[in-house]
Amino acid sequence: MSTKIDKIDRLSELSAAKDDERGVSLWTEAFRRLRRNPAAITGAVILLLFVIVAILGPILAPFTPTDPSGIREGVVKSGQGIIPGPTGDHWLGYDHQGRDFFSRMLVGARQTLLVGVISTLIGLTIGALIGGVAGAAAGLGGRVGRWIDVVLMRIVDMLLALPSLLLAVSIAALLGASLTTVMIAVGMVSVPVFARLLRGSMLAQAGGDYVLAATSLGVKRNTIALTHILPNSLAPVIVQATLTLATAIIEAAALSFLGLGNPDSAIPEWGVMLADAQPYLGIRPGLAIWPAAAIIVTALGFTLLGEALREALDPKLRK
Amino acid sequence: MFRFIVRRLLQLVPTLLGLSVLLFIWLRRLPGGPETAILGERGTPALRAQVRRSLGLDEPLLIQYGRFVKRTLQLDLGTSISTKREVTTEFLLRFPGTVELTITAMIIAIGVGIPLGYLAARRRGTWLDHASVGGSLIGICVPVFFLAYVLKAIFAENLGWFPSSGRQDPTIGATHITNFFVLDGLMTREWDAAADAIWHLVLPGIALASIPLAIIVRITRASVLEVLGEDFVRTAESKGLTERTVRGRHVLRNAMLPIVTVIGLLTGGLLSGAVLTETVFAFSGIGAFLYEAISNRDYPVLMGFILIIALFYVLVNLIVDVSYSLIDPRVRVR
């Protein structure tokens, strides 16, 4: 008997202690760990630079990125394989259409960021909607819920069975070549990934004690799904979104390479610039190397940050 | 086990059926049907309608779909609109090339990736560990087509070590039985033909292997690190087992499960990369052909190829699931 009383006493002591110091939230703790991780700092610095260039690029650019001045002045004759390299005025030389390459690199950052962010948002929104409904239905909805879950997940599986680039190419064929097409195509490819991830995460949370507690307190099922399960399931989705930003930029470049990107190559975008540079690889490799390096470094920034975020949020690695 | 495989195969039926309906509707919504590709600029409305009628595209969608299903069940996938050959013939002609390329890439990725990831885990914190982790991070971020171009420019065009395009030197005059050029060369004992086919596979294989290699290194390292900390490894070591036994039977075998899963997923997903590498190296596989089929609106080819690829993808995943129980007796599939 006495042991039981002891236990209860200790429990109340514990809860009193907790009231005093107040637990640190998952995100606060994750952020604290991120700051101590050199990989996360490197990624964040890369991304900060990238965003600054994306915003200020047009102001910083020394020349108009769409002005074919090199051809007008007769310096660039790409038909004869004459594309001058870096000079004091033109830091990275001209491109094959006689435009200042350094200015194009600076201005191109904005379009590249736009492609990455918008396509990830498309994938995240649609995927999270499907996965969220399936997860909530499976976790809480009884028999009908299970059916909704099965049907939705079969559709997602079908999307997953299609090779991603094929899916993107057929979407691009349906909509015609443009930057919007690339964003939609790249976004749609990540839909099944986000859907599966959020559903799995929600199902894992649905068995939690706090869900049981909320249910026994009489909280409505919809409210439990939206305000209890969903917020607790978001961590892996956010990590995946960061990593998807990297792949989105790379996949967008691949679509541009296949000729499905923006047909108006006057507006600079790194993927299009890289694709356009292929015929001139032998004459001026810099035309391909600079945009490729920019894409690789940016993708690296997102990947580093995403991986570090994953580590910081993983309960297994805590402490 | 047998029942598990049968059930998984039966589950395939609704997935493939749904996929075919989805594809059917999807493809017919693409603007500019096959008649545009056939007639080009000179198509008058009357001519277009005639071509559509001859292809059976003027009938209601439901009837077209019904006919498609009926024919498919008889293993007849129709005739390609652009090459006028049977879709199955086209597939058997081109699929071997992609399979050879995929196998080459996976051999490189697995052969280099698992040992490298294992060593990185054993020597955690050394330069080897840092280099392989850093290298794999960069490997994921390099666009495949760019890597393919760089490899082609350096090793084929500048140094001339490897051929820059195609699957085999046509002047060799190799005999082709199965269209797996390497296999054909070995079967007919035309050793030079087989060697030449392998030679053509090296550069595209490396380009295609870059992403799977990077992922396999990372997953092997993480998985081995986790197993190395387990109690049973310490027990095995303190029992006095040789290091070789501990490494092979205790560490690697237990670390294999996540690695095999990832390998399966990667193999299925390699086709996207194959489209790009095949384009750069003018390598005749299904990747480049599918890309052309989309721009030509070659419906029969698209439907047939995509369905077979999806089937292939699901089968690879099934093999992965079955191999679990071979690697890890704890996983008893029922």
What can you tell me about this protein's structure?
The complex is a heterodimer of chains A (319) and B (334). Chain A has 319 residues and is mostly helical. Chain A has one domain: MetI-like fold (Orthogonal Bundle). Chain A has twelve helices and no strands. The longest helix of chain A is centred in the middle third of the chain and has 40 residues. Chain A is elongated, with a radius of gyration of 26 Å. The two termini of chain A are 37 Å apart. Chain B has 334 residues and is mostly helical. Chain B folds into two domains: 72 residues, no CATH class; 232 residues, MetI-like (MetI-like fold), CATH 1.10.3720. Helix content of chain B is 76%, strand content 0%. In chain B, helix 5 packs across helix 11, helix 8 crosses helix 9 and helix 11 packs antiparallel against helix 13. The model of chain B has no long low-confidence stretch (mean pLDDT 79). At the A-B interface, helix 6, helix 7, helix 10 and helix 12 of A face helix 1, helix 6, helix 7, helix 11 and helix 12 of B. Chain B: Its main location: membrane.
